[in-house]
Design goal:
CATH architecture of one domain: Orthogonal Bundle
Order of helices and strands: HHEEHHEE
Largest sheet: 2 strands, antiparallel
Bound molecules: heme C
Number of strands: 4
CATH topology of one domain: Cytochrome Bc1 Complex, Chain D, domain 2
Strand content: 5-15%
Shape: extended
């Protein structure tokens, strides 16, 4: 095959693949009828609106001023009551948030769903002298 043909075939394959990737979310976008999932989606928007991510991480990604909140919902001695208290009162480095009850409920549903999706505490790993990491 001539180089120009190879280039054309690869370009077409690239375009077809890109197109299929951009099409996928559009085909998947049917809104969920599960009320818990809907609430969690609302909560994700609240999370974004109040910019919690600027200080907190989910799955280890985000700002590093505050702690990772992936599993805060099931953390011993924390959970819903603790999250509500933190939002209402804040602490020295965390601002308090005045938000309506619907937003708090949605945020809690989002944090509950996130918690159920897996564990993400980067501190579960130790760095080895070889530069690799290993689970504690
Ligand atoms: C300006 C940075 C900042 C923003 C924005 C912020 N937080 Fe925080 N948050 C912190 C810090 C720092 C702490 C740790 C506070 C401490 O130990 O005194 C914290 C602690 C918490 C805790 C307790 C964590 C634990 O392990 O006990 C929760 C829950 C929490 N934040 C939820 C939220 C939510 C939800 C939002 C968004 C509505 C948010 N935070 C926005 C900085 C922030």
């Amino acid at each position: 095959m001539k180089p120009a043909h190879t280039f054309t075939v690869l370009s077409l394959a690239f375009l077809a693949f890109s197109f299929s990737i951009y099409l996928e979310p559009a085909l998947d976008a049917a809104p969920s009828t599960n009320p818990e999932k809907q609430m969690a989606s609302e909560g994700r928007l609240v999370w974004q609106r109040y910019n919690c991510q600027s200080c907190h991480q989910l799955y280890g990604l985000g700002g590093y001023l505050g702690p990772d909140l992936t599993n805060i919902y099931s953390a011993p001695g924390k959970g819903e009551t603790w999250i509500r208290a933190m939002l209402k009162v804040g602490s020295a480095p965390m601002p308090s948030f005045t938000m309506p009850e619907e937003e708090i409920a949605a945020l809690l549903a989002f944090l509950k769903a996130t918690d159920a999706s897996g564990r993400a505490d980067p501190k579960d790993f130790v760095a080895l002298p070889t530069g690799m990491i290993q689970r504690k």
